Amino acid sequence: xxxxxxxxxxxxxxxxxxxxxxxxxxxxxxxxxxxxxxxxxxxxxxxxxxxxxxxxxxxxxxxxxxxxxxxxxxxxxxxxxxxxxxxxxxxxxxxxxxxxxxxxxxxxxxxxxxxxxxxxxxxxxxxxxxxxxxxxxxxxxxxxxxxxxxxxxxxxxxxxxxxxxxxxxxxxxxxxxxxxxxxxxxxxxxxxxx
Length: 194
Hints:
This protein is mainly beta.
């Protein structure tokens, strides 16, 4: 499985942080995401299968980010169970409570991935067409991650989320193909001190 060693290492690092909750870890999320679904660009959906298992550790918002609405820094990893595109990265997430026990959590971040960036075959050749039909061509190993979660707080420290994320380089940090990938799923969170 491509990227499995990196994914396991990232997961191990995140789980090692869990006991240090008093050292600034605010919450941990674990979820299962439908991978490469049709949301923003349907012509490139369903080229890769297998759900992604996702892990995220969010930290207390540092004081120097008060001017930006006190977002929480996070680190995350998403491992594809069928050996397709996995990724890991970091970013910021905000929490906007709009009703009792309900919140929206938008986020922005940066990830690196182990998927395909370009087609290695001669343009127009049968191999090129077959490869393009079976692979996402992400154009860059560096991608932006935009996300939004609809969060429901439960009794005690637990919460559940419906979570969407989009990965793309937006022709800003990469050149060439920019097919992007969308994921939608459910995550469960544990809030330290919650």
